[in-house]
Design a protein that fits this description.
With 197 residues, the chain is mainly α. It has a domain of 132 residues: Tetracycline Repressor, domain 2, CATH 1.10.357.10. The chain is 69% helix and 0% strand. The protein contains 10 helices and no strands. Helix 1 crosses helix 4, helix 5 runs parallel beside helix 9 and helix 8 packs across helix 9.
Length: 197
């Protein structure tokens, strides 16, 4: 018998909590059902499949991470905004590793759900808005967004995997990396002649 009040949102949150505890790839529908105290079949009234659940976790995480970044960067510009943005990103990845992983993989998300999700769109707006503060325009904006995402994700992924064994703390390297990114963004190289937008 399904527990009263079971909804797609409750199933998604339970899956997200489990992903943070055991890793996104280890989450199964049976584990989520046990966590909620229901039979496996009860979940399929609310989510279609494990892939659907993972897509919902990705959207939940995108919303949560975007809210954190928006709050952190509110009223800030330039380097202050960059550092607040980056720190909020890294903090979310540390606190919610399974949810964060869902936002960084090629999970197929139901187009209907994606169309109504504010998180991914708001994340793009926040990122582009912060970078416009550096005076960047297209195609440099897109290139800078890709650079930031690669840097932030690469750093937190290596950090989570224990990839920084040097005696210098990852925090010290993080601060210097953000200093370097700020300097680069302030002195962004001009596009090569003939490069198409």
């Amino acid at each position: 018998m399904a527990r009263a009040g079971l909804t797609a949102q409750r199933v998604t949150v339970a899956g997200a909590e489990l992903a943070d505890e055991v890793g996104l790839d280890q989450v199964t529908m049976s584990q989520v059902a046990r966590r909620l105290g229901v039979r496996d079949a009860s979940l399929y009234t609310h989510v279609r499949s494990l892939e659907d659940l993972r897509g919902r976790i990705a959207l939940l995480a995108a919303d949560e991470k975007t809210i954190r970044i928006a709050e952190a960067t509110s009223g800030r510009a330039g380097k202050d905004a960059l550092v607040a943005f980056a720190d909020a990103w890294r903090e979310y990845a540390h606190q919610h590793p399974g949810r964060y992983a869902a936002t960084q993989t090629g999970i197929r998300i139901d187009p209907g759900l994606a169309a109504t999700a504010a998180g991914p769109r708001r994340a793009v707006e926040l990122t582009y808005g912060m970078l416009r503060g550096y005076g960047l325009t297209e195609p440099d904006l897109t290139d800078a967004v890709r650079l930031l995402r690669s840097t932030f994700h690469g750093f937190v992924a290596l950090e989570a995997a224990g990839g920084f064994a040097h005696e210098r703390s990852p925090q010290q390297s993080w601060v210097r990396a953000l200093d370097a990114l700020h300097t680069l963004l302030e002195h962004w190289p001009p596009s090569r002649e003939g490069e198409s937008a």
